Amino acid sequence: MIKRIEHVGISTKNYQVLLDFYCNIIGFKVLYDGVFQGELYVSIMVLDKPRGRVALLDLDGTQLEIFEFSHPEAPDSTRIRPVNHQGITHICFSVSDINAEYQRLTDAGMIFHCTPISFSGEGKATYGRDPDGNVIELYESI
Description:
The protein is α+β, with helices and mostly antiparallel strands. It contains three helices and nine strands; from the N terminus they run E-H-E-H-E-E-E-H-E-E-E-E. Strands 5, 6, 7, 8 and 9 form a five-stranded mixed sheet that branches. A four-stranded mixed sheet has the order 1-4-3-2, with helices on both faces. Strand 3 and strand 4 form a beta hairpin. It starts with 6 loop residues before the first strand and ends with a strand. The relative contact order is 0.18.
């Protein structure tokens, strides 16, 4: 029986930038910061001799894993991926005061699609982008 999401993984070419963003701006704490390589990763990732850096982060029980591959090198991805493309489209963070978080993150340089908007009295939400262009949703339930 599936119990919950254990963590979300993000691959990046900007390891330190993403680590700094999720720790210093969003508020995650580093549980592990190290390297990965070897047969275990060949089997699970189905890549040729994968190796690189990995960090496991935690925010009140929500975990995020950040990978930067030194091998095999990932292709450049210079465009912002639209949310209607197949695959995971965003990570949503529950917040207690969406207007205050929106302002704090905007002041820290985060780019948002729009200001927080109301959803039929159920809550307020907005989408923004991390430094790699991954979509982050802020959601405040009412």
